[in-house]
What does this fold into?
Amino acid sequence: MTTSTRGAAKTPAVLVLEDGRVFRGRAYGAVGETFGEAVFSTGMTGYQETLTDPSYHRQVVVMTAPHVGNTGVNDEDPESQRIWVSGYVVRDPARVPSNWRSRRSLDEELAAQGVVGISGIDTRALTRHLRERGAMRVGIFSGDAVQDDSALLARVQEAPQMKGANLSAEVATTEPYVVPAIGEKKFTVAAVDLGIKGMTPHRMAERGIEVHVLPATATVEDVYAVNPDGVFFSNGPGDPATADHPVSVMQGVLERGTPLFGICFGNQILGRALGFGTYKLKYGHRGINQPVQDRTTGKVEVTAHNHGFAVDAPLDQVSETPFGRAEVSHVCLNDNVVEGLQLLDRPAFSVQYHPEAAAGPHDAAYLFDRFVSLMEGQRA
It folds into this structure.
C-alpha cells in the first residue's frame, strides 16, 4: 500500500475487481493504492468497530448503507489500536460529522492511518456484483496510482488470495496482558488472541472474569501456566485451514476437559479440532443484522457477523468425534450455514459470530453467561 493525504476529496479514484469490472469515483481517506479481498458489510451503524476489527485484515470493505461517517470518529469505540481494513468503499460520505462524542471526521481518520478508500460509486451495484460472483480480489487506486485499466487489472490479479492465508499471528498481541475482573474476581480465563476485539475480554470482565490474553503462538503449556478455569479462542482473519497450531492447542484443552468457548475463527478452530472440515463461503456474512437460531432453545437472535469461512458439519445429526459427541447448536436462517457447535460429553461450545455486540445487537450476550455456567459446573 502506498498513500498520501493531500486533496483526497477532489481526487479521482478507480476501483478494479479481479474479474475486470471497474467503478470510478473520488478518493476517500488516503490517496494512493491498496489491494485486498472485496467484501460487503450490511451494518447501518458501527463503522468504527468494523474498521478496527482485526478480522478484516487484508479486506476491502464495501458499506451497503449509503451514508457513512455521520457521527465522525471518537476515541471510545475502536476495538483495537488501529484500523485493520485494507481499503474502504462508501457511496455518500458525510460532509460534516455531528455527534457529541466526535473528535474528527472519518475521512480524516482514514487519511491519518493511511487507509485508501473510494467514495461516490454505486455501492448497491457493487454489492449485487459480489453477491452474484462472490468475494474477490480488488484494488483501489487514486492520484498518481491511477493507470490504464488493463494495467490496474493485472496488478489486482497478482495480489494474494484470502484462501490459504495464515493471518492471525499478524494481528494478535505479541505479549501476554491481563484484563482484570470488574468487581469481585470469580474466574480466570486464558484467551488465545487470534484477532481479539477489545470488547470481548471486557464482556468477560463484567462477569467477574480475569482474562489473560495470550498471543496466537501460545502453547498448551502457556495456556495452563495461568491456571485457567476456562479457555477462550477469539475471532480472527484468514483461512482456518492454515491454523494448525491453534487447532493443536485447542485439542490439548479438550483432552484436559477444561471449559472452552470459541467465537468466529474460534468456532472454525473447534470444528477442525473435532475433525470437521472448513470451506470458503461465496461472499460471507458481515454486518450486525444476521438471523441465527439457537437450536438448544429455539430462540432466534439478530447477530453480528464477520466471517468468510464456515465449518462443514452435519446439521441434523449428532457426530462422533475424538472428544465425544458433538452437534450443531446454531444455524444461520438465511442460508443454513453452521453458526455454532457444542460437545455433549465435555464442557465446550462455540459460535460463528460476535456475541460481544460491538457494534451490534445484544441478543447473544447470554453466551458469556453460558461460559460462566460451564466454569461454575466444573468447579462444583
User: Anything to note?
Assistant: The chain is about 20% helix and 35% strand. The two ends are 53 Å apart (CA to CA). The first helix runs from residue 47 to 51. The longest strand covers residues 277-294.
